[in-house]
Amino acid sequence: TKHKVGYLIGSLARESINRKLAKALVQLAPPQLEMSEISFKDLPLYSYDYDADFPPVARAFKDAIAAVDAVLFVTPEYNRSIPGGLKNAIDWASRPYGKNSFARKPSAVIGTSPGTIGTAIAQQGLRSVLSFCNSPQMNAPEAYIQFTPGLITDAGEVTVESTQEFLSNYMAEFSMFITRVLQVLPRQAS
Ligand code: FNR
Known about the structure:
By secondary structure, the chain is an alpha/beta fold. It is 37% helix and 14% strand. The protein contains 5 helices and 5 strands, in the order E-H-E-H-E-H-E-H-E-H. It has helices at residues 17-28, 56-66, 84-93, 120-132, 161-184, and strands spanning 3-9, 33-37, 70-74, 107-113, 144-146. Strands 2-1-3-4-5 form a 5-stranded parallel beta sheet. Strand 4 (107-113), helix 4 and strand 5 (144-146) form a beta-alpha-beta unit. The mean pLDDT is 97. Ligand FNR is lined by residues 11, 13, 16-18, 76-80, 113-115. Residues 11, 13, 16-18, 76-80, 113-115 line the site of ligand FNR. InterPro entries: Flavoprotein-like_sf (IPR029039), FMN_Rdtase-like_dom (IPR005025), NAD(P)H-dep_reductase (IPR050712). Residues 4-146 form the NADPH-dependent FMN reductase-like domain. It holds the Pfam family FMN_red. This is NAD(P)H-dependent oxidoreductase.
């Protein structure tokens, strides 16, 4: 069976290396995974004042998450955390109270940085957020990708074979994780 995966790219930058990584992951994903980007760049800054009446852009964002079986976060590390835009998007999705879009929705995190620890600290923070949001997360494999110039082309091709194999395996593992989670937690009507 096919599984729909929505991916959120933490960076809004035009030349984002995490967007390149996401492009590579889409190409390396096993055929069972249908990958689609869920954009959050047009969301206003969240406040619970919106809870009584979400604006259309926020409803569309929550609907997009509801429509997928699992969520993949591909994020840079900004100041040892996830970018504010991504945190804002997660806050929107988690509300209003009782309508948390991430509840029981399987997820995985990955990211790339020119630095040697490859977004590890941002990912650790994101995992805490996703835990609170009750999203079952793939614990392993972890993926901390150090971006070296040319590692991934603009077309999303991974130029280092060992990295390509690692990323293919990561996506295959995510596919199996989604299958396992959906066996015990079938998707609820929302
Ligand atoms: C960074 N960068 C960075 N890198 C890192 O490994 N740890 C960090 O804490 C930070 N902090 C940080 C803060 C801010 C505001 C910026 C703009 C950048 C460098 C970062 O990894 C690099 O710019 C990447 O290109 C960001 O990924 P995207 O946005 O290109 O996908």
